[in-house]
Every structure is written in structure tokens, then in C-alpha cells.
Amino acid sequence: MFIEVKNCNNIDSGGIELTPNQLNIKYATNGTGKSTVAKAISFSIGDRSDGGKRLKDLTPFKGYGASPLEPTVTGTDTFSNLRVFDEGYINDFVFQPTELIKGSFDIFIRGADYEAGMQEIAVLTSETKNLLTSDPEISQLISDLGELLLAFGKQVKSGLHASSNIAKAFKGGNRVSSIPTGLEKYTNLIQCEQNYKWIKWQQEGKDFLDISSDCPYCTHDVADTRELILKVTDVYDAKSVESLNKAIVTFSKLDKYFSDETRKKIAEFITNIDGYSDAEAAYIVEVRRQIEQLAADLGKATNLGFSSLKNVDGIIEEVKKHKIDLSLYVHLNSSSSAEKIDIVNRGVDCLLEKAGKLQGGIAKQKILIEKLVKKNSTGINDFLRNAGYHYSVKIIEIGETYQLRLIHNTVDSEIENVKSHLSYGERNAFSLVLFMYDCLKSGADLVVLDDPISSFDKNKKYAIVDALFRKDNSFKDKTVLLLTHDFEPVVDMMLHHPDRFSKPTVAFLENKGGVLTEVPIARSDIKTFIDIAIDNAQLPIPEINRLVYLRRYYEITSNKRFSFDILSSLFHKRNNPSRIGQNGFIDLTEDEVVEGVTHIQRFIPTFDYAAILALLNDDQQMKALYFASENNYEKLHLYRVLFDDKPSEIESDVIRKFINEAFHIENNYIYQLNPSQFQLVPQYVIDECDVYVDGI
After folding, report:
1. Which of 138, 379, 384, 687 has CA 20 to 30 A from 353's CA?
2. Are residues 457 and 537 in the same domain?
């Protein structure tokens, strides 16, 4: 399929071919528009799905003039689930505070098989759960027990926690139900539902009595009752009264669940005007322990399922333990309690009838989870080991979920704040591999990788390529667009290890004057730079262009035969061939010249030093040759020769550095594309050179 891009940043028109269910590698020099292609595809699909207008962000500057240009992308209609690896993904999804990647449980564990297993177990336990949930009073009982436990506060070695609601409410006695002498006239206010609010209002208003003897509310003189008014705030505290109200309400809710004797004792406790004794506090704490235990037993029974039974060898014995013996709860042994506990125990009995099937389902689910944990953690750890990173990952069970955690190989503990411990390269490598697992789980129908591995060294590059595209649980046979200015992955997959990787579709992208085109790259196009130099030195092209390649051949071989010195002297426009000596350049001897020229003539029989030197010194002929050349690589070398004896015209340090380095040797890769067939020199460099050559 062809994806056409128009009026997006530096791309006026053009596009790329995309082969479904294959890795599509687009190799290009920097400045071609790789990132623009990635964004154009991403924005096009995103705008179609959510109605956005992000594609307009790619409008070129010239598109804002009198004749506005509209960015367009066609050919992406078949894709709906696009995933793009970029800096935004790294920032938003990986290296979370508690796990390496957001949603690691969904990515690595939860799937169709996992959900089917959980559903099978849920069906077996559903009758029990339905019995327990069909009676709303059981849920309310559990809730009320929990509420009362909160009122007790934290456990202490003896007695009640001083800051608990119960201690605050009853330590000084219940003076709401038993109003102290002298305050009887306030009975209706003290015992109303909103009493604590009235007490707070009364406390806040007493300061106004210091201003005058008038009531701050009705202005009647209260000098005779001032002492009585102040007694209210001396006896009552708004927070304590509020705590008392809540405690009494909660105790009242549970009243029917207490045994007769306990109900009587609690009634005495909450109505005692003098506060509680240590013995009474100990009694209440004993009640608390039974409430806590019953609440725990009820909670376990209602949550019977995979999570509570997965680590148990004998399911039948474990399920039996969830039956509740009410006779052990002397404080809660009432007819109402017995009614609810009977429902719980009947639910447990129902589950016991299915214990055999339940045990089989749980065992099957455990095996599946262990398999998924091993499979996914092994895949990531193999990559880390192959790339030389001293880390490993573990998928750790956290309650009913799982999280991916990072471990350093020198310590047996999880790394916290992972992002601050990893280098830039480590973060990118981790992110890229985790991104792959995320894409596989989400079922992405198109994955775009925008120059993700160029910054890594050779070993790490191969480890990443191996992890992403070779294994079964990888991007292998998925529709992936890899945009890169790094040629090594192409060499590894097409030349060195074609047996290990599914055959990718590879093309070279070129942007000339805003027109984006691509040239397919075949395995036969990948050659050593020695082969390229020899082949091009014998092409039917101008002799000076052939000498450019031949000079490169001599530069990279050890057997130079003085030929390199001769060609180097020629390109630097020296009248006589020379070589570097201890004190500068020294002329070659006649024999050395003969030896060097003879070897050159094996490739170019018509080679004549003086004739070529005359051509090089003729700026107009060189200018004509420069503009007649269709190959950017050759034009770059002709530019360098033209300006060898002239002041540097180009002001850009970046372009000047590019020209100087390219003039010598491009040995970043042993294997390369032939520069006579692929425009490996960026067009923006040649455009700059054209300006200065045209001015000669």
C-alpha cells in the first residue's frame, strides 16, 4: 500500500510504500523528513479517530501565505490501532513509581486464557457468593463491624486508645443521656441530634460575654445566668459529644447482634455518667477483639475465590476453615447473628460440594500465570543480558494484581525511583522493549518506530533488533515502519543474518526539493566499501569522478603502491606528486611515481597526472563537471577539490565539517550502499554547495 504525504513540513509531495505484516525499514539521511512521515501518519490516523486537527500542525511555513497549503495524508484508512514510539511514550507510560510500565498486569498477565480461567473459577464460587450477597444485611453487618472497629481506634497493649472515638466519647462519662445537675433546662438542646453543633456554637459565643452582660444573640441581660451558661462549655466538648453520638449510633446498629449479657453491659458502658473503669475498658476491648475476628471471618468467606485459595494445597480443608462457629463468639452469640452465620455456612457447604473442580481450576490458573511470568520475564531478561545491561526484571504478585519490577544484578532487592538510576541509553532501550510488549498486547495494526536505535553501540543495537524482530513474541510478521538513519540494522537483517529474521522490505528515502521518493534496497545493494570503490572506479563516468572512488580505495587499503600519495597530491593541486616526510612534504622519486601511476592505470588506463592537474586548475571546466554530475557524493568531492586552494566560502560549521569528513573516508560501516546509486549526501548540503560553485 502507498501512503501519500503532501504539504507536511519539508515534504511538499511524495510518500512511502508499506507492506502489511512485514517490517518496513526506511533508511534515510538526517533532514530527509523521517520524523515528519511518522507524525503525518500518526496525526492522520489520530484525527480520523477522535476528530482532532493535529495534522494542521505540520503545515510548512510557506503554507501560511496568500495561498495556504493544506497538509494531507492518504492511504492510512486501513489502520485504526496505531502505536508510535517516541519521547511522549517514555514520559507517560514507562518508569512509573511502583512499576516499570503502566498497566504491567494487563500487558504481561491478563489475556483471553487468563480471563477464561478466572471466569471458570468465578462460576464455581458464584453460588456461594450469591448466597452471601443476596442478603443485604450481611453486607451491612460487615460494614457496621468495620465502622465500630474504626471507632475503637488502633490497638494498644491495654485498654482503649486515648485518641479513639470511644475513649473520647466515654472517658468522662455519658453526660448527654445523664445531664449534670443545674443544666436540666438545656436538656432538649443537649440531647438533640445536632447537639454537638449547638455546643460548638455556644463555645464560640461565650467570648462575647466579656464585652457586655447582654446575650450576644437576643441582647437580654444574662448577668444572673452567666455562670450557668459558662458551665455548659466546662462540662461539654463539641468533638467529644460528636464522637459519642457516632459511637452510640454504631453500637445501636449492632445491638441485635450482641448476646443478651453483652448487650446489657454495653448499655451500662455507654450510659455511665462517671466514665469507665479499667475493668470496663478491658471488657470492651474483649468485645472489640471478637468483632474484629468475626469481621475478618465474614470478609474471608465472602471473598472465597482464586486469590484466597491459590496458595493452598488442600482446597477442601481450606474451604472448611471458612465455616464460622458462633459458639466461639460469646459476645456476638445472638439469634440475629446465628441467622446470618447460617447463611454464610450454607454458602461454604455449597462450595465444598464443588471443591474437586475448584481445585483443578485453581491449579490450571496457577500454571498459566507461572507460564506467563516465566515467558515474559525471560524475554526481557534475555535482552538485558545480550545488551550487556546489569539488570533483570521480575513480575511480582501484589495482592490480586502483578507488577513488573527492576532488579540490579548485584543486589537482591527492587530498585525504587528507576528513572533516576538509569542512563539515557538504558532508559531508551528498556522503553523500546517494553513498548513492544505493550503493542503486542494492545493488538496494534501499525507500529511506527522513529529512529529509535541510532544512539546505541553496535552490540546493544543488535540486541534490540534481535528482541524486537526475531523472537516469536516480538514484532515479527507485524506491520512495522522503522525510520532510521542507521544502516547497521539493515546490514544485520539482510546480509549477516537473513536466516534469523523474517525478510524485511527496505528502501532508501530521498527528499529533493520537497519531493520525497524512495529507492528499494536489495541484498545485493549492500557491499563493502572496498568493492564499491573498485566498481565505481571503472564506471563510464568522467575520469576525475572515477579517481574520487579510486583514491578512496587506496585510502582504506594497506598496499597503496604510492598511488594514494599521487592521487592525494593531485586533489590538492600539487604540481609534483609528494608524500609526507619528517619535515613536511617531499617529492616522490621517479621510480615511486612510476610504481604509483602503473597501479592506478590498472583501473584507469588513460590516467595522466599532468592532464588531470590542468583540468583541476580550470575552474570553469570543473564548474561544468560539477553541475553535470547527477550524483551528490561525486558533486561533494568536486566541490571540495574546487575550493581546496580557495578560502572557505561556506559559513556553516556543520556543513563544512560534513564536507571535510566525507572528502576523506566514510568508514562508519564496513558495509554500505553505493553512493553512485543512492543519494547518501543530503540534498541540503548540495544546495549549499551549488550556491558557491555557481558564483565561481
Report:
1. 138
2. no
